[in-house]
Amino acid sequence: MEENLRIIIAGGGTGGHIFPAVAIGQALQRLAPGTELLFVGALGKMEMEKVPREGFEIVGLDIVGYDRGSFLKNLLLPFKLLKSNIQARGVLKRFKPHAVVGVGGYASFPVLNAAQSMGIPTLIQEQNSYAGKSNKILGKKAKAVCVAYEQMQRFFPAEKLITTGNPVRKSIAHNVLGRVEGQAWLGMDPEKKTLLIVGGSLGARTINETIDAELEKLLEEDIQIIWQTGKPYYEQAKERVAGLELKVKVFDFISEMEHAYAAADVVISRAGALAIAELCIVAKPVIFVPFPFAAEDHQTSNAMALVEHNAAMMVRNADAKQELVIKLKKLLHDEAMQELMINSLQRLAITDADERIAKKVIEIAGK
Questions:
Q1: Vertex 137 angle, CA 19 and 75, to 5°
Q2: Strands (E) located in 27-121
Q3: Is 355 a residue whose pLDDT tops 60?
Q4: Of 19, 50, 77, 283, which sits most exposed with the smallest number of CB within 10 A?
Q5: Strand arrangement, sheet containing 248-251
Q6: Distance of alpha carbon 235 from its chain centroid, rounded?
């Protein structure tokens, strides 16, 4: 009797890594029933809480990333890397996977690096349009590199590249909710234009501060707002909208994003790879404010890839306080621009990225 497929999926740190990892895991179990999955994350990061909620087992490595703001914090980094490498080898020896998938984030490098040194096939899921250093190193020995953007042969051997798109949550990829249902779930007025503000799973300080300062100006446009702040800004935003709760709904995190996307007419967002993949699928006119301190400034590259296809607008983080609300007001009144963006986003959407990647994982695992 043939043994079940055993796969390790490594990575995490933000929702942008965790949701794709879970989507790939679910696709593997659909395509190869009986697949045994083990997720590997970083201790203390959000994957340690979110992955078990999805019904999957996860183990955590004692690993941190390079801290650009503190030289002292980086003194322990070589020891943490060594320790996480030993831990990763232990996990691989115990679980004996047929293949290992890396989705980015702290835990991805030690696990894939150890797997490659042990002769276990690896697959990289590179989400961004500008590859990070770790993935560029791992790409040399990976069996396949799944990408979402054009011209990635700048970073990886061309023969290993497969354009799959970025996997998104099933609830969004196959969302059938209409605008009225989204509005009803949020308790909002379906007659009013609705702005959705999202700064990624951890929030975005510049976006939050800009909205906070310009809130009355925005509400003069007779719109209503769904504002996901992230935990750090949540209490301040709640106080800020006191008395305006019918017009502005504040959340620290929205789990059921399909409702928020369904309700929205226009979106302000960071430009993480997951946000972009989701916005292409839901096809909502969007202004990106890329996080400028992401590795290699990859969020700006991500956003520009859509701007060049007339699928989005962009405001640089440094210019957000002066320009964001001005651009947003223009967009709210420019129906032709909204229509152009919707059509362009729809052309870029990929709804089955999870299964495309899962099929390649099964192939390299020799199953």
A1: 85
A2: 36-42, 58-61, 99-102
A3: yes
A4: 77
A5: 248-251, 224-228, 194-198, 266-269, 286-288, 313-314
A6: 24
The answer to whether 234 touches 255, Cβ cutoff 8 Å, is no
Give the model's pLDDT for residue 201.
Answer: 66
> Is 1 a member of any domain?
no
Q: And the tokens for 349?
A: 């959407």
Of residues 361, 145, 168, the one with CA closest to residue 275 = 168
For the chain, give the number of residues: 367
Q: What is the CATH number of the domain that holds 252?
A: 3.40.50.2000
Question: Model-level pTM?
Answer: 0.86
In which element (H, E) is residue 65 found? none
Cα 243 from Cα 271, distance rounded (Å): 31
Rounded to the nearest 10 degrees, the angle between the axes of helix 273-282 and helix 298-307 is 20
Say if residue 228 is in the same domain as residue 101.
no
Span 153-167, average pLDDT = 96
Nearest residue to 107 (alpha-carbon basis) of 44, 19, 41, 15? 41
CB distance 126 to 301 below 8 Å: no
Rg (CA), the chain: 21
CB of 126 closer than 8 Å to CB of 298: no
H or E element: which one contains 333? helix 320-333
Q: Are 85 and 113 in contact (CB under 8 A)?
A: yes
- Domain membership of residue 293 (yes or no) is yes
Contact 227, 259 (CB under 8 A): no
Distances in whole angstroms, Cα of residue 114 to Cα of each of 29, 167, 201, 260, 302: 25, 25, 29, 40, 30
